[in-house]
């Protein structure tokens, strides 16, 4: 959707093809780091995301009893009076982006997908699953980690399972939760991120986990069990995880497609091209940045192919660094080497703070 907003804002005619018929969004939360907010600010949407969520400026890294071990001041990329990071519900982000895409004239088609792509010298014909076809200048494959467009282009890289499952639960926000908290446990790591005045999301990263699907009705109890080894603030939060419908458990996959990310008049962006694990909290940032850079390069070059090459040159190394760092941090977490993991994360966040 950010690609639709950026491209429509540059005067392009944009159709969005979305497989999900009712475009439902699960209730878990998301963190938008400084680079995400900076990119959203360029689309005029940072304020709406911060207002609809909870702004933060610090990360508090704590032990399993909830005692603070160190506090990281996050770079204030939007300026001294603005938060460095925002926690918000995925539903709020979805609404902000959908409304902006519609307001800029993008046409949304839900409940369908791309059935085939036929490249031509002057564009590409996209055959859609409703039987219609469109001849367009460019197809942007922003269809996520299991990208169909990527498969159609014959690009390998099914992102690999990292051996971790991430659990998330929406909980009431405790009064002390005004920063992003992480809690280093003896086996698993947990955390808490406020997403509004009233709500926060708790997470726990389960190491060496079986990626099989568990019954939804057991999720709250099982998440509480995983948090059993923590005490203090985590125990306080764990006691509030009651409704299994507010808990999600997802496998962590990560991977990056070797460039170039385009073939003819079709280009991959976002998770379709590069999916970091949640440890770097940067998947959304990379996807939104891609959208801005793509729109910018298309405006700078008359020739689409040249613009797509320039896009790839500007994005590949930055995205690869984030994906590879996220995987390394996950490995260190699994070995309980938290101080090293924090250092790596910090270094990568410094690079991410550089302008795109
Ligand atoms: C557990 C977990 C926690 C995370 N937490 C964070 C976080 O806190 N902060 C952060 O920045 N990132 C986080 N991420 C990563 C972030 O969610 C992704 O990087 C981001 O959503 C990528 O955006 P995208 O638009 O590329 O893909 P997606 O958000 O996956 O969107 C792809 C869209 O394409 C649609 N689609 C898929 N296939 C087709 C098809 N064939 N035809 C038509 N439509 C299709 C899908 O329905 C979807 O709407 C997390 C990821 C996970 C798994």
Automatic annotation (TrEMBL):
Q: From the Swiss-Prot or TrEMBL record, what is one GO molecular function term? A: monooxygenase activity
* The protein, known as: FAD-dependent monooxygenase
The organism named in the record is Streptomyces cylindrosporus
Which terms are listed as keywords in the entry? Monooxygenase, Oxidoreductase
- Residue span, FAD-binding domain: 2-324
**InterPro entries from the entry?**
FAD-bd (IPR002938), FAD-dep_Monooxygenase_BioMet (IPR050493), FAD/NAD-bd_sf (IPR036188)
The major lineage groups are: Bacteria, Bacillati, Actinomycetota, Actinomycetes, Kitasatosporales
